[in-house]
Amino acid sequence: MTDYVDRHGLSVAAPLAALIENEVLTGVSADDFWRGYAALLRDLVPENRRLLAERDRLQAAIDEWHAARVGQPYDTAAEIAFLKEIGYLVPEPAPFTIGTENVDPEICEIAGPQLVVPVSNARFALNAANARWGSLYDALYGTDALPGAPKGPGYDPQRGAEAVAWAADFLDRAVPLEGASHADVTAYRRDGDAFVADTKAGTVPLADPAGFVGSRTDGGRTGYVLAHHNLHVELVVDPSGPVGAAHPAGLADVVLEAAITAIQDCEDSVAAVDAEDKVLVYRNWLGLMNGDLEETFEKGGRMMTRRLNPDVTLDAVGGGTLTLPGRALLLVRNVGHLMTTDAVLLDGEETPEGMLDAAVTVAAAMHDLNKTSGPRNSRAGSVYVVKPKMHGPEEVAFADTLYGRVEEILGLPKNTVKLGVMDEERRTSANLLAAMAATKDRLVFINTGFLDRTGDEIHTAMKAGPVIPKTEMKDAPWLKAYEDGNVDAGLAAGMRGRGQIGKGMWAKPDAMAEMLEAKIGHPMAGANTAWVPSPTAATLHATHYHQVDVKARQEEIASRAPASKTVLLTPPLLAGRNLESETVKRALDDSAQSMLGYVVRWVDQGIGCSKVPDINDVGLMEDRATLRISAQLLANWLMHGVITEEEVDDALRRMAVKVDAQNAGDPAYRAMAPGYDGPAFAATRALILDGAKEPSGYTEPILHRYRRTAKKMESV
């Protein structure tokens, strides 16, 4: 039972009140905070409800329109005219340029990987923050980026040599020497303000001597730092270890500037369903902002404590010192407009969780803004918030108002809070420029989210007919129009040099060779950031930003014709095509297994994001976005008779047995079979059977309900 305290007419969970009043607030009194927050809720909650009702109105109108045309060929032009009529599509705004100011270079100047991590997990949160620099040798040696695997329990010299050769080839392309290969170097050294390399044929400089920015020495270890495409590469010379001893130049490692930014997530990768959970989320974010977050854990039989890394200080070219950031610039992803929380009650009712996120995460970030020493996050004096799951310009304008009110409560200058708008809902994609214009003086980030966007695509067209299988979605024409349109809008609004145009997650954390082949497509598409699931993936993906000059690509792309809105708004329907029974069964089993594998951890253990074995036992990153697309696909097929409720129940029971077996080594796991009566199994079934009527096809309402049930069962 949660204890509440009264704060200006609000009932606030006592642990949350204590956290905010004793730890979070700085520069504003508790009384002023709660007075302001109570007024914010009373003013903005009605508008939040109206916007959610507008979602329902539009969806009901679209459902009715599609239902009246069952059996007729799909007509995109007719639907576009209808969407304009009901206000789903709004007029394009007059040309504009975003006016965001005080933006850190990691956002506006440097193209590179972006990590996304659940802030509820302190160890993961610290790993992401510290992933600004990563060992290329380690990333190659320990993954399938190189063929095969290390041999033996210790260091494998042959595997190490393969990593060194791969890295030398990379260096030849990113930071080449004049007339020699890095593979031929016998010594690296600093000659005054120049970086040179000795080879058997003589001494050579860098092909671009200005690429050398400085060096540092720690005992017998010397690092030479080079710059290329606004990214840094450190050549670490240390002949004392096995790698350096085997290298003619003593090159022990190549360290890349990797995760330039990292999103600390309060949303899709987090299972926070009550005040207790929210306190954990906020306390970890606070620790990142004030710099004291640490986590102690056991690794390799010994205890380790992880803290935020210090900055990197170099003996600079030209004299003096040069300081480079030691950590990724952190953004925080708040939840969207839909969900409410029992952490704060207004007139006895739950209040919007996104509003609480806004007030508390920005207040916590003031610890960073007020620092005069120690590890800084934003050197430009900004707070970076990513706002997901907004439907259209009105909802973006509401978010802009919300963060303006939070600034007023906290005494912050207007537009201190910068917003990232996630282009992951169909109505936002269709009105993207108007949505961006609604927050043009805060905007620093737009990105595509294929999974949520596909989930909303299916839900919006739920009654138009059965959709194509999930495996075919990435080749559907609407998706290319969506991905291209996001970049087109970003360039048209002047985001070059002002913000990030991003692309979505690589969901296969163990498939690094495949990622190296595929994910170069993101910078080639003109995106100056893209999501990765781990520090190792960030290091490998960083090589793509040395291969591609994103600024030049954006200049090339800016002159192309904008992506077709007609193609964007043509849903991926089967259109009379009949699927083979085996194709349907395989897709049903695949979705049922992945849903169960994710939901059972979410509901029973409160794990919001994890590597879940798929039906072929391949680990895939799963979060609520992946869950949403699977649930919506099966709900759509169920509605249109592609599958039956009996087939769904049969698949869930069979796949529950498989998921139980996959988790047999987890002592905290609760098996679903043979009873099939636990909250996790029930939640998965509800996500499918009720998926067509869930708001926008979101999974949160069902997950939260069943997670709360599971927590009550644990407490009995």
UniProtKB/TrEMBL annotation:
Metabolic or biological pathway: Carbohydrate metabolism; glyoxylate cycle; (S)-malate from isocitrate: step 2/2
Binding site for acetyl-CoA: V116, R123, F124, S269, R306, P533
Gene Ontology MF term list: magnesium ion binding; malate synthase activity
Main EC class the enzyme belongs to: transferase
Entry-linked InterPro entries: Malate_synth_C_sf, Malate_synth_sf, Malate_synthase_TIM, Malate_synthG, MS_C, MS_N, MS_N_TIM-barrel_dom, MSG_insertion
Cofactor: Mg(2+)
Subcellular location, principal: cytoplasm
Ranges of residues in domain Malate synthase G alpha-beta insertion: 155-222
Gene3D superfamilies: Malate synthase, domain 3, Malate synthase, domain III
UniProt cross-references to HAMAP family, sorted A to Z: Malate_synth_G (MF_00641)
Protein name: Malate synthase G
